[in-house]
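Re: the 347-residue chain
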Amino acid sequence: MSVPASARQVYLPTLGSLDNLKIKEVPVPKPRANDVLVKIHAVSLQYRDLMIATGRYREGKLPDNLVPCSDSAGEVVAVGEDVTKWKVGDRVCANFATEHVYGDLTRPIQLTSMGGQAQGVLTEFRTFPSYSLVKIPGHLSYEEASTLPCAGLTAYNALNGPTPVKAGDDVLVLGTGGVSIWALQLAVAAGANVIATSSSDEKLKVATKLGAKHVINYKKVPDWDQEVLKFTNGRGVDHVIEVGGDGTLPKSIASMRHAATAHIIGFVAGPSNSESPVISLISKAITFRGIQIGSVAQFEALNRLLAANPEVTRPVIDKVFPFEQAPDAYRHLQSQKHVGKVVIKVA
C-alpha cells in the first residue's frame, strides 16, 4: 500500500475556543523499529476533548500545538522492522494511554494519554507502539470501532472491576452519553437489570430499545433516587455509572444498596450545594471507584465480549461528521443533543 509523503492534521495552536481547531499539512511519520503506521479512518469524541479544546482541562501542561482526541480506528499501512504481531491491512484501535498494557494505572502511564498529555489521533496518519494496538472485532465498521478506546473500555472497566457485574444485578446508568450507553449495553449483555436516567423522553426511548428495564426523566421526577428505590423494591442498585459528579452524587448514593459500588467517571452535572457524602458512604459501606479508561489487556477482553454478543453491544452512533467539519462535531457534542457517540470520519 502506497503511503503519501504528507497528510492533514487537526491541531489546536491555542486553547480556549472551538474556533481554534485548525487543519494543517504535516509529513507522514515513518514507523520506528517497534512502531506501526496507521491510516486513521474514524475518530470519536469524548467530553474530555471538549474540555481540552475550551481550556477547562486541569491536568497540567499540555503539548504545544496539540493534536486532539484519543479514540480512533484505522488500518495498518506500514510496520517497523521488529514488528511481528501486525501486518499491512490489519484493522486496529490504539489504547487511550499507549503505555497502559496491563495492570494498574501509574503516573508515567497517564502521561501517555493521547489527545491531552500526549499528542492525539485527529490526523490522517499516525504511528503507535505495536503493543498499544488491539484488533478491531470483525463485525464492526471503523466508525463503530472508534467508540471503543475510551467510552467502551471505560464502561467495561467499571462493570468488570473488583466486584464485576453479574446476571440479576441492578445497574443505574446516569444519562445517555457515550460511556453511559456503553455501560447500559454491557450490563444488558451480562444479564443485569438496567435503570437509565435522562432529561429527554426521546433519549429514554433509545435506552429502552437498547434493553433498559426502567427509565426515569429526572426533569419530570426530581427525586429520581426514590424512583430507583421503588424499582428495586427498596433494596437499591448494585452499581452506579456515575458521570454527573458532585451534582448527582447525593442521589446516586441514596439509590444504592449497602455495600454497592459507585463507578466515578465524570462530572458533567457540575457542582453541588449538598453536604459532603462521606457520612452516607460510611453508613452504607459504599465503595467509590475512580475509573480512568483501562489497559490493552482489558481492551482485548472487551473485544471478546463484543464478538460474543454482537447485536446487544452494537455501538450507538448519534452522528458522523466529515474531517473538515471537526469543529461542528465538537459543537454537536457540546449541545448535549446526542445519544451515544459523535464520530468524525477521517478517511
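The chain has eleven helices and 15 strands.
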